[in-house]
Specification:
This protein is mainly beta and about 170 residues long. Helix content is about 5%, strand content about 45%. The chain has a domain of about 120 residues: Jelly Rolls, CATH 2.60.120. The longest helix has 5 residues.
């Protein structure tokens, strides 16, 4: 059963996440995807619900995730402190403390948040949780499929005929 959760950005415990170390040990990618993260509520670990709520801290020059959009889940960022650049399909936008960014579950919600300032950028990420979920990476022509314990990425050009091997 879900419970009431009250959390403060100043009191949560953060984990260091280094996506480049996990997915790019050879160091061939230009952008550094690295952040501190604290999950306030995640339906798969906190007893259900339809919202995921996490605090993020991005150090200068870092990005949280590659440029992408979701096909099933909506996402909202609230910038608590700092400033940076939000890459969108309409171009780069400067974001700063107090901004709320609402990303629909389609190509209009494509985004990548980068701390382009000299100070940390802190924000809260609230998004719906529905599975299966497909995440599209338009610049690199990849998709990621998430369903239960399956989390796989594919190049779009690796598609096969529906009946192949049947």
């Amino acid at each position: 059963m879900q419970k009431l959760i009250i959390s403060n950005v100043n009191d949560v415990e953060y984990k260091d996440i280094y996506l480049n170390e996990i997915f790019d040990p050879s160091g061939k990618h230009k952008q550094s995807f690295e952040f501190k993260n604290s999950s306030v509520n995640h339906p798969f670990t906190e007893g259900g619900g339809k919202l995921s709520v996490s605090f993020y801290i991005l150090q200068p020059g870092k990005a949280s995730y590659p440029y992408h959009y979701h096909k099933g889940n909506e996402e909202v960022f609230y910038i608590i402190s700092g400033q940076g650049t939000l890459k969108t399909n309409e171009g780069d936008r400067t974001i700063s403390e107090g901004d709320i960014i609402i990303m629909p579950a389609n190509e209009n919600g494509a985004h990548m948040l980068i701390n382009t300032s000299s100070l940390p950028l802190t924000y809260v990420d609230i998004h719906t949780i529905s599975q299966p979920e497909v995440v599209v990476y338009p610049e690199t022509e990849k998709i990621m499929i998430m369903a239960g314990d399956i989390k796989k990425s594919f190049k779009l050009d690796s598609a096969v005929n529906y009946l192949e091997g049947e």
